[in-house]
Write a structure and sequence with these properties.
Blueprint: H1 7-16, H2 20-36, E1 41-45, E2 48-53, E3 56-63, E4 67-72, H3 75-78, E5 93-98, H4 105-116, H5 119-122
Antiparallel strand pairs: 1-2, 2-3, 3-4, 4-5
């Protein structure tokens, strides 16, 4: 697998390049994900912040004009336990955050920790 050069610098640049109205929400989501899975890898790809476990995609932070999305790749498996996840189909589910509202960091950490423990993710650890 190809690795990005200086991923820590790219992650820092990701936050530096955000509009001021998006920074607090993005930092809060990022902090909650990292708190739940301290060993998780991070990369910036396609303008989004990706969270990876042993090089495999776990979740992505996507920032839109009016809201932030935390997209879980195996969110469909998590949907029964976490009905706040939105979406349909076989895989991805999304948590949406309005920039004007506080982020429930405990909830984000709980769902991230659960996603990391999914059998298909845990096997890669």
């Amino acid at each position: 697998m190809r690795h990005l050069a200086r991923p820590a610098a790219m992650v820092a640049n990701f936050f530096d390049s955000l509009p001021s109205g998006q920074v607090a929400t993005a930092v809060a989501i990022h902090g909650a994900v990292i708190a739940a899975a301290p060993g998780i890898d991070q990369a910036v790809r396609w303008g989004n912040l990706m969270f990876l476990v042993r090089g495999h995609h776990l979740a992505t932070l996507v920032l839109h004009k009016g809201q932030a999305h935390l997209q879980f790749v195996q969110g469909a498996v998590l949907a029964e336990q976490f009905p706040q996840l939105e979406g349909v189909g076989k895989g991805m589910r999304i948590l949406k955050f309005r920039y004007s509202q506080p982020v429930d960091a405990d909830f984000v950490s709980r769902i991230t920790a659960t996603a990391v423990r999914l059998p298909s993710v845990a096997e890669r650890r």
